[in-house]
UniProtKB/TrEMBL annotation:
It comes from Prosthecobacter vanneervenii. GO terms for biological process: DNA transposition. Pfam families: Y1_Tnp. This is REP element-mobilizing transposase RayT. The lineage of its organism: Bacteria, Pseudomonadati, Verrucomicrobiota, Verrucomicrobiia, Verrucomicrobiales. Residues 24-199 form the Transposase IS200-like domain. It comes from the Bacteria.
Length: 217
């Protein structure tokens, strides 16, 4: 499998619910999804309101399907400010380990890890992943546009069913939407790998409370 980094000239599929999703052929992605109880509702609503206000203050309509492209066009200072205020803050909220955090249990995190490895090398190429107490980070190459979202849906659907059955629970396990980035360079790929390996340390987790994996060199 050969993958490339984000190409602004290449055909890009853009879709949006609460978050925008960009997809290109043969691209690397850094993907995050979380449990339904991982961020308190009032905290998330406040974060979304602050992001909405910031975008409007910088001349960007937050209702646009492709508002993320407008953020990318901003001066570097503003772009970094957005990343610090919203992207980093969102990940920081996850690392506070809100919710029941059932993924701390090794038998539960193994369901996710096993499922991620299942079609590695056929439908996608894993670079690294970490299963945190209430969220998952995956770095992978995916071939076709539109396939990344399909993979996320399949991963979440299968693991939610297995985990609920194991724990004797019903109802929504994962938050519906994922947070994803098209990887833009070799340096960014390495940055995301480092983030994955540093994440348990940053969240002050003990051995056995997370599960991390990387492609053998």
């Amino acid at each position: 499998m050969e993958f490339r980094f984000f190409d602004p000239r290449a055909k890009t599929d853009v879709s949006q619910r609460q978050l925008p999703h960009w997809e290109q052929d043969n691209a690397f992605y850094f993907i995050t999804w979380r449990t339904a109880d991982s961020i308190p509702r009032d905290v998330l609503v406040q974060w979304e309101a602050e992001r909405h206000a910031w975008l409007e203050a910088h001349g960007i309509d937050p209702k646009l399907e492709d508002w993320q492209r407008e953020v990318e066009m901003l001066p570097e200072r503003d772009h970094r400010e957005f990343y610090r205020l919203f992207t980093l803050k969102w990940h920081g909220m996850l690392d506070e380990c809100h919710g029941e955090c059932v993924l701390k249990q090794p038998r539960v995190s193994e369901i996710v890890a096993e499922n991620l490895r299942h079609q590695d090398g056929s439908r996608y190429a894993l670079e690294a992943f970490v299963v945190m107490p209430n969220h998952v980070h995956v770095l992978a190459g995916v071939h076709r546009r539109g396939e990344m979202k399909n993979l996320c849906r399949n991963w979440k659907r299968y693991t939610a069913g297995r985990i609920n059955t194991m724990l004797g629970k019903e109802g929504q396990f994962w938050q519906w939407e994922s947070f994803d980035h098209v990887v833009r360079s070799a340096a960014s790929l390495e940055k995301f790998k480092k983030y994955i390996f540093d994440n348990p340390i940053k969240a002050r987790l003990k051995e056995g409370e997370y599960r991390v994996w990387a492609k053998p060199k």
